[in-house]
Amino acid sequence: MATAKVLAGARVVLPTGTVTDGRVIVDGTKIAGSAPENAEVVDLAGHWVVPGFVDMHNHGGGGASFTSGTVDEILKGVHTHRLHGTTTVVTSFVTGEMDFLTQRAGLLSELAEQGEIAGIHFEGPFISPCRKGAHDETLLRDPDPAEVRKLIDAARGRAKMVTLATELPGGVDSVRLLAEHGVIAAIGHTDATYEQTVEAIDAGATVATHLFNAMPALGHRAPGPIAALLEDERITVELINDGTHLHPAALELAFHHKGGDKVAFITDAMDAAGFGDGRYMLGPLEVEVKDSVARLVEGGSIAGSTLTLDRAFKRAVTVDRLAIEDVVRALCANPARLLGMYDTVGSLEPGKDADLVVLDEEFELKGVMRRGEWLVEP
Ligand SMILES: [Zn+2]
Known about the structure:
There is one protein chain. The longest helix is centred in the N-terminal third of the chain and has 16 residues, at 98-113. Helix 2 runs parallel beside helix 3 (145-154), helix 3 (145-154) packs parallel to helix 4 and helix 5 (194-203) crosses helix 6 (224-231). Strand 1 and strand 2 form a beta hairpin. The strands form 4 sheets. Strands 1, 2, 3, 4, 5, 19, 20 and 21 form an 8-stranded mixed beta sheet that branches. The protein has an 8-stranded parallel beta sheet with strand order 6-9-10-11-12-13-14-15. The protein has helices spanning 71-82, 98-113, 145-154, 171-180, 194-203, 224-231, 248-258, 309-318, 324-338, and strands at residues 5-14, 17-27, 30-32, 40-43, 48-51, 53-58, 60-61, 64-65, 86-93, 119-123, 159-164, 184-187, 207-208, 236-240, 263-266, 278-282, 285-290, 293-296, 356-359, 365-370, 373-376. The protein has 9 helices and 21 strands. By secondary structure, it is α/β, with parallel strands linked by helices.
């Protein structure tokens, strides 16, 4: 039987703020309020302890694709991200044939039932050909609510989010359908105007898929989706903080408008995350990863990232100079709340899963615990 552990001496980031010389008590798979007598004390002086990261937009890692991999490959990809601190992950599909996506949704819903993944995100096929990014244009389609319904039904209650270009015919009705079914409607890969974006938010959209990327730039006469997504407090914006997808000033603009509670850092990672440079497939499209930047072989569009959330964390604190509490919110609490999982993950509080990350003073990852078990022992 695993003994209880007291992680002592670290700076611990709690929802109420940072406690120096704090402690986190782990009993079994959960965080506990008090320590039993025989608890093992783990000295973490000089370290930070933060909640395990929650990634709501992630296509793969460790050489594996969540869109097309086998179950073993998917688990390997999930494990790769866990070793980088992501203890909760939503697996994202890129655009594919409807039959393929429904079949894949069935397969991954089983991994969600087993607790390996937090759910499924469909990024496409209901996105704009003008802003397709690394999605196969021949498979894109207008968002028909009946087809959206087909996808979420195939996920058997495990669909968490659908990204769509809400300005397309059927877009706003599809947002309504998703909202009614408790699935996040995310605006993204969109060519919408400001006004069209406002309409979609009023219909129930609550997330901006990688804000700034795959949407029209902010203009002073035609502000486009970015202005609408930034100004409306019902929207949480996803940001890919890898130093490639966003200029630091764009990130700062997002934090300035959204405050600490409506930003979620994501990886949008593809197979090469935690794996290395080389040639990969993203759905049906070939991608070349060079110096950790993934681009389509044809056309050169950025094709997801090779980011892991520990790197996003370090960058946010050391390059972007964000307050560590805001970074923790953007990596943990905010996505957990959106996904409806904040009662079990997203903060270090008694009763929640013992999912946590240990960082040293340079914000390098030193330990990862998931459900009470060290995956990386500090
Ligand atoms: Zn994506």
